[in-house]
Amino acid sequence: MAETQALTKKDLKSDQDVRWCPGCGDYSILNSVQGVLAGLGIPRHNMLFVSGIGCSSRFPYYMNTYGMHSIHGRAPAFATGIKLANPELSVWIATGDGDGLSIGGNHLAHILRRNVDVKILLFNNEIYGLTKGQYSPTSKIGLKTKTSPMGSVDRPFNPVAFALGCGATFVARTIDTHLKHMEATLAAAAAHKGSALIEIYQNCVIFNDGTFDAIADKTVRDDKTIDLEPGKPMLYGKTRDRGLKVEGFDVRMVPAASADTWKADTSSAGPAFVMSQLDGDPTMPRPIGIFRSVAAPIFNDGVNAQVRDAIAKKGPGKLRDLFYNGDMWQVT
Amino acid sequence: MAETQALTKKDLKSDQDVRWCPGCGDYSILNSVQGVLAGLGIPRHNMLFVSGIGCSSRFPYYMNTYGMHSIHGRAPAFATGIKLANPELSVWIATGDGDGLSIGGNHLAHILRRNVDVKILLFNNEIYGLTKGQYSPTSKIGLKTKTSPMGSVDRPFNPVAFALGCGATFVARTIDTHLKHMEATLAAAAAHKGSALIEIYQNCVIFNDGTFDAIADKTVRDDKTIDLEPGKPMLYGKTRDRGLKVEGFDVRMVPAASADTWKADTSSAGPAFVMSQLDGDPTMPRPIGIFRSVAAPIFNDGVNAQVRDAIAKKGPGKLRDLFYNGDMWQVT
Amino acid sequence: MTQTRNVGAELPSQQFENVVIRFAGDSGDGMQITGSQFTHTAALLGNDLATFPDFPAEIRAPAGTQPGVSGFQVRFSSSDIHTPGDRPDVLVAMNPAALIVNIKDLAPGGIVIVNTGQFTERDVAKAGLKSNPMTDGTLSGYRKIEIDINDRVKRALEGSPLSPKDVQRCKNFYTLGLMYWLYSRPLDPTVAWLKDKFSKKPELAEANIKALTAGFNAGDIQELFQARYEVAPCTTMAPGTYKNITGNEALAIGLVAGAELAGLKVFIGSYPITPASSILEQLASYKNYGVISFQAEDEIAAICSAIGGSYTGHLGVTTTSGPGMALKGEAMGLAVSLELPLVIVDVQRGGPSTGLPTKTEQADLLQAIFGRNSEAPIPVLAASTPSDAFECAVEACRIAVQYMTPVILLSDGYIANGAEPWRLPDVDKLPRFPAKFTTVAPEGGFLPYARDEKRARPWVKPGTPGLEHRIGGLEKAHLTGHISYDPENHDFMVRMRAAKVAGVRDTIPTPAVVGEPQGDLLVLGWGSTYGSIASAVEIARHKGQKVSRMHLRHVWPLPAGLDEIFSRFKAILIPEMNLGQLARLLRSEYQRHDFISYSKVQGLPFKTFELNNKIDAILGK
Amino acid sequence: MTQTRNVGAELPSQQFENVVIRFAGDSGDGMQITGSQFTHTAALLGNDLATFPDFPAEIRAPAGTQPGVSGFQVRFSSSDIHTPGDRPDVLVAMNPAALIVNIKDLAPGGIVIVNTGQFTERDVAKAGLKSNPMTDGTLSGYRKIEIDINDRVKRALEGSPLSPKDVQRCKNFYTLGLMYWLYSRPLDPTVAWLKDKFSKKPELAEANIKALTAGFNAGDIQELFQARYEVAPCTTMAPGTYKNITGNEALAIGLVAGAELAGLKVFIGSYPITPASSILEQLASYKNYGVISFQAEDEIAAICSAIGGSYTGHLGVTTTSGPGMALKGEAMGLAVSLELPLVIVDVQRGGPSTGLPTKTEQADLLQAIFGRNSEAPIPVLAASTPSDAFECAVEACRIAVQYMTPVILLSDGYIANGAEPWRLPDVDKLPRFPAKFTTVAPEGGFLPYARDEKRARPWVKPGTPGLEHRIGGLEKAHLTGHISYDPENHDFMVRMRAAKVAGVRDTIPTPAVVGEPQGDLLVLGWGSTYGSIASAVEIARHKGQKVSRMHLRHVWPLPAGLDEIFSRFKAILIPEMNLGQLARLLRSEYQRHDFISYSKVQGLPFKTFELNNKIDAILGK
Ligand SMILES: Cc1ncc(C[n+]2csc(CCOP(=O)(O)OP(=O)(O)O)c2C)c(N)n1
Ligand SMILES: Cc1ncc(C[n+]2csc(CCOP(=O)(O)OP(=O)(O)O)c2C)c(N)n1
Ligand code: SF4
Ligand code: SF4
Ligand SMILES: [Mg+2]
Ligand SMILES: [Mg+2]
Asked: What SS3 class is residue A160?
């Protein structure tokens, strides 16, 4: 029975108790995802969530859709198999900064490179939550954790830059506490044809509380972040009085009127990457929103087209022809 | 006995027969590496080559230095352990596009992110050589190989962009047949403090012959490539009559006189990344040379400094103190 | 001295040989600390001890729910004990969830102390219960002591500067005080601990000490008990300095010590995974011991970096649990081929796959021995108790260095988190096994794959002038180590590597038989079944059964002499927390014995009575 | 018809039952093609056949060197044969390196045909030889036929438009022509093949045909021989349509067929690795069969993608060799926990580690059975010959689908690259085992971990309305599949998974004993030792020894009835290309038999005579 009625958020809640710590940023992400997905017009049975291992990777259990809680770091590989084998499914990955960028970095890189039509939610809390607080590949230098008692000396990844370096076709960033922005970003990702990576700043109240406060706290957010909206001027500040402008290779702060218009679909990923580099500059607002959104051939389309073409050209393979071909001889 | 005399190229040749196919680009790379390393003033016994598996990964056997031919894709992990444990060694990795970017992509990403002081030679022949000709993560779309009989639909990685996305501090590109350029690039990498990734366009005569001809063949090279030389204007063409200029996010071809000066050490990796994106534009020269060369904290320095600091602060650990501490009690 | 009233003095004092208490509450209730403090005090009083913490897989499961229950069982005794006890004599339950999850384990007639302040209708509902277990018959057959601890703490801390929420956080120390009174224990050690712990927050120290003291002095509660209890010091413990230690702590210390005894420094490359993470964490804090700790991007990079560390002349170590072990197989094969020392620690947990990450199991034995492509032999050791993990770690280092080989050391979740008193070793008496580095080419030239009397090849630090050479995973010619595709050489090298590992047998002892050297039944164990087996065999022997026991530390290669020992028993019982992996291994080695496999795969250690029932069944009693 | 003179007519014609020829030359000399063409023609003539190609690990080792030698051995026969022969009767050596590498294998008194055109001093030096083997006594005891093939080809192709270099490339066809003459074979099949192969380069076709014909017609050479030889068609081959097939080809076809018989499409996720790559390559060419082939970034992604494929309702397949197997362990454990069908193919090669990548070995057996964390049982099959790989692939698909389980199929380098005649199956007679997908919730609700009579759980395609559910690697509650940390449930599920896999035994036959049902010795094999064992036992029985044989296709779980069969023999000899892995497994299962392990780990199959010597030694003759 196809579901005919539109879904509500509640339809997407599974019967399992949600078991994150009270106050964890994961709750609001779950809630936003359920809200956005309910509105996509996709029947529940065609939605599928894949995850690895981590607090964030518990996500699929809480979605009343199909789902697989797989092994650590490998969700993109499962998702690629799933999407190739059944392109009708709307496939989503929930992963963490450890799951997706530490053990799973290569699979993430390759799914983005190939542009498999899968949406990837990267819960970045800059820590390993589930294993109780070791530093992660996105932890800030100097962070003291159980495995870095004198402070971490690992230079962190910038997930947006990483994704762009892999040739990702859709890259965005949002914040667990910025609900409206998160929902808009999720909706844009859902609409994108191809791989979409959404980095979500997510607060781990237990092991890395407040790591994003300096930019993401509601009191400073408007001044400390800039929302990259394709086709719109790059403005920020509570009154949107300031903006950004690109001069040569440099990005400068300018009055709103002189701000450049943001383009996320240039043929070069250069602009998006340039914006990603603002992260390192404390004087600059942190870009969130849509860094890149560009059309490109989709891997699962390409693979399935070859299957279709081969069938069209050679006819659907018959078992007999599989055996009876090439140099044969008879024994009588 | 420390070696007192300067090394010659011959000193770095091992007693093993070189077993690449006749005409393979690997020969000239070996030759250049031996030449450049002989001139570094480093004693042979302090040089160490690590590799994974592939034609290119046979490299260590041919170097009369210490060396490890490890397992597929993992050379950066071995090299990280080696460099952390003995920072005195000059550690080099030889890897291929399959070894380094397919199975080993994650380790490559992490060694670059951490900025371990190791030099990485990425032999990019856009094919799996040793396993006899399957497409690789750098193969061009449409390439017909044994595993892509109808043409590859995998969008290729751009190794330079990948490395920049990982936060690499030194990224360069050179060509197996461009000996002078290769040697200059190797020398620059050797001089860099921190991770250095050198992508080397390498011809596989057997399985992917001529894949770089359109840009790397000596007859067209001057027109089809541009050598990024830090501090010099971005010029190309046989008579160096043309150049590149950056306008906003765009890179334009201009007469030599209007060319911008190339900077590889900007705080943002944006410029290098913008240049890497020219690869996709057939009307543009292909950048080779030094995309990025910037100073940053070195992982092995950081790790070893903490060990030294801990010893300085707490004194060198004694076995007895390891046991006799905390809450103890006596049984008599 | 803390002021304690001597209210209970009029109550009769009862002597016990040993007592098992389980503290259970919500994850946020601090039960692990309560248990540890009780343990610590018991240790100072000279009791023998064993503990078993049991906490949820979730970081913070929703408060008040059954999955959120955290427990800590401690057994303290005036005689030698080997396990934390089959069932608690006393259960402290801080809320309905803790009560319902744990009550079925309580010994019949046991005491259950309930915090009635946390038994509102809402609390009962949160625990997923239809009825209140205080009143619905759940507690019949037990001695129920009801205390509104919430309220008592509130009253005890009236006037405290702490917020009401923080006041409630002192509940566990109130409870601890009560238990101290009940078991006639002093408060001072805990008071000292609190003062130290909260040296920067004296108001917290004070509040907790107040709560502790109030619990101890709660005369009206004390009237609910019929007696105070005493457990005398254990007089059979060997003299020496002790401390309480968990298996992971002991293992980490053992690795540093083992390296030191070999004249080396530790290089640990590891990736966090429950229940192994704390070994990495602890080693990361031993930087002043020259330990280089590297948190790698995954388990494969971890072991590869450790091999790199060994190549340069460090003692390479990598630590993990089952799923991580499965990932390291390929690199282990390389280590076998390179013939470099390496210690691989697998703290086993429930499986398959992600399984039961916080529960214990012994099911990685065959993976450890056989889980690599081709013939890639590696010696395998297994720790049997928390403090034994120290000795096994040292032994693993010895074998690795003396035989130039990777060594696998198996521990498990029960050992990792469990604690026991550890008699601190006399540093001067520890055996030394210095690593020998080749620094100059011998007469006739340097041969990287020449071998010494243990079949070990030479170890050369890169950086040594004149000994430059290359090693790798392709088959190597005997002596020169050059790549060789020669068929006979390959056969020779495969057998050489096997012989080298089998030769480890020459430097390990035949394990002792505890009990008569012959009899009706030998109970044979490996790993963390040690305690349960020791207890059960003790009981069986008291009953007059002809039962002895033996425990394997070296599970591969098996020690010499087993065949002969086995032949002195009518049957050999092998209890394992897997489906019979050691039993399978032994059957494959020794054909003529009656091996009886006894499996339990519940993520929990064997209970002593389970083993005794099994022994009885075999011996027909 | 090609023009052939009938020069040899006057030579006596000698009949042979079977002949073994080895073509050996430089990697660039086209020996693999020469061998295949000879094989192909023999097949058309109705001979039984077995081949053994042996090529260097290097893509193009330096020309003329020993490591650069490439060989192809073909045995063709008028009777049933099982191996490519212990030693060649005729060796064709195109250069000194080829001669020196192969000569020691040639049967005493055998013919060696030498291309003297490639025996200059430089050639001898390139081969790393101090003296010319043509003259230094190396060839004493053999019949040496000297031909300057370089020169002859040059002359035969005089006036050809080809460059001198390309002319020399026709050498192998000249040689082939000569061998065709010697063994009285027609040229037509090869002529047809050349025309087809070079249809776009007719000048190449023409030149090669000219060379072939010239070789056939070289009267003066023919005078060097004392006879022409004939090998009559094999009359004992079962009637039917045949083609020559390698193990990897048969395996690939078997996977497509197996999926089809289950009503499914293949999803293969794989990563190239010698000697497994060609399975992926072939499946990539079967797109019109609906095969989805995915070359993943590594072996882990490969198996994970295949599990993803299975989850959606395809037949997930992943193919690899030893080092890749070692990487897949963790994901296999997940597949066990998810209980989804999956076929994992391991084409074994020499190890440990990278080992001898192009050589064969059987040393992944215990890895296949035990190489995963915790109790993660998986059925394991092993192919015994190239064509058997087809049947095993189909059987692996059957078990995977019927039992909802991953299945491991072992092959090895010898099977993968070796070829034999395959009698093409009758499509209608192949057994069908359609997969059953659950599409609607049964009465009482859908239970993802309910079980059918084979203990298989239901398979639901995502996209099915109303059956949404989640699966994962944490332990699952019986029936509901919800996460469960319950101890009893875990024990139950561990045993359930073990029982399910053990239950495969119910649908597999007890393997046949070939020979008497009882006797002095049973030679028991698995995998590619099949041919050598069959030949050796045939010989032994001819000699009157009381020897029978049995071969295992299902190595885990072991089939029912073995214990009883074993008890009918005094001893059981188990030849293996490892250090005795099956022998260990059998000892662990059956305690009372005398299993004799016979190991050879040289990267090469057993020779028949080696087995006969061993049998003789055991039986005391
Ligand atoms: C193979 C393997 N290695 C290690 C682990 C242990 N582990 C589980 S989750 C995790 C890291 C989780 O960090 P992240 O992805 O950031 O998720 P978070 O918990 O922070 O949401 C680790 C190391 C595992 N489950 N499997
Ligand atoms: C674990 C593992 N998987 C697969 C292989 C097979 N393999 C060896 S080299 C190689 C690819 C080599 O490609 P590349 O790194 O580009 O090197 P090239 O030969 O082209 O120089 C592969 C897939 C292996 N040796 N080990
Ligand atoms: S540990 Fe951190 S990330 Fe995990 S559930 Fe708790 S708050 Fe969230
Ligand atoms: S196969 Fe290609 S890359 Fe490998 S040695 Fe030959 S030419 Fe070089
Ligand atoms: Mg995280
Ligand atoms: Mg390559």
From this structure: helix
pLDDT digits (tens, 9 = 90+) for D273-305: 999 999 999 999 999 999 999 999 999 999 999
Pairing of strands A242-247, A250-255: antiparallel
Q: How far is B99 from chain A (nearest CA, A)?
A: 12
Q: Looking up tokens 């979605």, which residue turns up?
A: A63
B309 near A CB under 8 A? yes
Task: Give the minimum alpha-carbon distance from D102 to chain B in angstroms, rounded to a whole number.
Answer: 21
Fold of D13-230: Pyruvate-ferredoxin Oxidoreductase; domain 3 (3.40.920)
The per-residue pLDDT of chain B, averaged, comes to: 96
pLDDT value at residue D7: 52
Could you say which ligand is closest to the alpha carbon of residue A22? 3
Residue B78 within any structural domain of the chain: yes
Domains C13-230 and C242-429 share a fold: no
Q: Which domain holds residue A184?
A: 9-211+298-304
pLDDT of residue D55: 79
Confidence of residue C4 (pLDDT cuts 50, 70, 90): low
pLDDT tens digits for range B121-168 = 999 999 999 999 999 999 999 999 999 999 999 999 999 999 999 999
Interface contact flag, D337 C352, Cβ < 8 Å: yes
Q: What is the pTM of this model?
A: 0.96
CATH of domain C242-429: 3.40.50.970
Amino acid identity, position B259: A
The residue nearest atom 2 of ligand 3, judged by CA position, is A204
Q: Which amino acid, one-letter code, is at D468? A: E
| Distance (Å, whole) CA D341 – CA D398 | 9
Cα(D79)–Cα(D82) distance, integer angstroms: 10
Length of chain D: 621
**Residue C506 or D7, more confident:** C506
How many other CB atoms are there within 10 angstroms of residue C188's CB atom? 13
Where are the extended beta strands (E) located within chain B?
Answer: 47-51, 66-69, 90-96, 119-124, 170-175, 196-201, 225-228, 235-236, 242-247, 250-255, 286-293, 328-331
**CATH classification of the domain holding B39:** 3.40.50.970
Q: Tell me if A259 is assigned to some domain.
A: no
Residue A233: inside a domain = no
Domain ranges of chain D: 13-230, 242-429, 519-619
Instruction: Please give the CATH topology (third level) of the domain spanning D519-619.
Output: Rossmann fold (3.40.50)
Contact D212, D176 (CB under 8 A): yes
On the question of a cis peptide bond just before residue A271, with omega within 30 degrees of 0, the verdict is no
| Residue D589 burial by Cβ neighbours in a 10 Å radius (0-12, 13-18, 19+) | middle
Domain count, chain B: 1
Asked whether residue A137 is assigned to any structural domain, the reply reads yes
Q: Tell me the pLDDT tens digit for each residue of D573-586.
A: 999 999 999 999 99
By percentage, how much of chain B surpasses pLDDT 90? 93
| Residues of A whose CB is below 8 A from C285 | 149
Find residue D16's DSSP bridge partners: D231
CB–CB contact C297 A103 (8 Å): yes
Sequence length of chain C is 621
